[in-house]
Amino acid sequence: MRNSECGINNSAVFRTSLGWVGVVASGQGISRIVLPKKDKAAVLRELRGSELGDRSSEEYNSSNPLILKKVVKLLQRYFSGESVSFDLPLDLRYYTPFQQAVWKAAAAIPSGETQSYAWIAKRIRNPKASRAVGQALGANPVPIIIPCHRVISSAGSMGGFSGGIGMKKLLLELEEKKHGRR
Question: I want to staple 79 with a disulfide (CB 3.0 to 4.6 A). Which of 16, 20, 21, 95 is the partner?
Fold first, then answer.
């Protein structure tokens, strides 16, 4: 599954029921997901503009087509409304220990449920770090697999989301339907 259009060897851009999605894998695991967009070109632009940064492209040359095939199938099932378990290796090595702790806590939130930024801050034993938790979630490179959309404000408002509030609401509604809560 190579996508030479994007210029990143270990990538896939594919259609789901919610739009075009992009995924990048390194030799160590999934390193980037671009949330659904209306057109393929927008996904390609986002992948090109954000993925490699200052990292050498050689780090992405050891192809891992099996993990790409697996994540594509899982994401297609997820976006079509099925319950799925994302038991996939992730490549988060370029991120801080704080970000990784926040993402690990967010990954523990079950599908169909939400928790607050303060809940995550307490879970990582840094109860005054709610704002920093929000910033770490905003930098999450693999949304859906690390379900940052399940984190809301303590008051119950949506808070922020890298894919936009509309996408956050859509993902939460999709999960509520899966679990018969709607």
Answer: 16
